[in-house]
Amino acid sequence: MTDTSNLPTLPSQPTNVDWPNGDWPTGTATTANHVALGDLLDHAFSDPNGDGKGPDDMGPTHAFVAIQGGKLVSEAYAEGYGPTQTYPSWSMAKSMLQALIGIAVRDGKMSIFDRVGAPEWPAGDPRAELTFDQLLRMASGLEFDENYVDGDISDTISMLFGEGKADVAHYAADKPLIHPIDSVFNYSSGTTNILVRALSTVLGDGEPLSAQDFEAFMRTELLDPIGVTHAVPKFDGVGTWIGSSYCFMTARDFARFGLLYLRGGWWGDRQILPNGWVDYARTQSKVPTGDDEFMGYGAHWWLEIAGPGTFSCNGYGGQYIVLVPEKDLILVRHGDSHDVQGDGVKRWIKDVADCFAVA
């Protein structure tokens, strides 16, 4: 699919460690600086101003989970939160969609180079040439304003909460091209929802699945096999999963999803994702991602938040699943950080990862 020669090797599950089909096996972290890790966790869960808003640089943290060597090695929750509570995915759900598309590729139902197709794009419309690959890499060229904080109502807000909420894929697919296809990176929740409907149409042999049938596909093919028992996806008025934003799960279940990718798409002796799919997710797109000092972008996964070779699912408010192959490490963080605190959370994530040693 892409040049993967520079990617770090993904670690295998240790032979003496059970897969977390039920409870996570527990163990001790391999840390380079145990004291620093404790200080970072104390800071994340602190409330120095006594107002429930957490530290000024990163806002409140609600949950933290660390998995190393396939074992739960660290876990912490704020008061009022816990391991059985579900947390919002926000845009971490985008990476879950990437997995679902991979399953369809595995089963021979489609290729990433197939045209997406949309009823809004008639024959002869240049948008009709868009492929799954181009949308997965956020290089569609479609107009979409991904903004959560400015005073103007952005496309994201309109799609999720305003005029587009009844049919999120239609709202996004109706947008015009404003750049040549595959020339500009534009991170877009609308793009993801177009992909959800397109996948649903592939699975339904030309007609989108009902919400009930699509959720059954999610559970049967992805969630159940990796032991996720608390997932709550959300659908719009026409039955499209809002894959840009909504799949509530526990912190431990988000870590299970991370483990699937850290293990190259395998779970025990079952191959859930096709060969090369995880490498496709974690390979930098040929379209530059801009000036973000922390991250690049692959195929619906972010890259290098915790250093070279790392890759992550990122969600609004500071939701993260971070994979560090070199250390066989998964970090999950849930919280409620404001946009201006985003860089502080990213620095904290990298500092936490740096506290762990190679397993």
Automatic annotation (TrEMBL):
Start and end residues of each Beta-lactamase-related domain: 60-332
Protein source organism: Candidatus Phaeomarinibacter ectocarpi
Residues covered by region (Disordered): 1-27
SUPFAM superfamilies linked: beta-lactamase/transpeptidase-like
Biased composition (Polar residues): 1-18
InterPro entries xrefs: Beta-lactam-related, Beta-lactam/transpept-like, Diverse_Enzym_Activities
Protein name (database record): Beta-lactamase class C and other penicillin binding proteins
Pfam families reported in the protein's UniProt record: Beta-lactamase
Superkingdom per UniProt: Bacteria
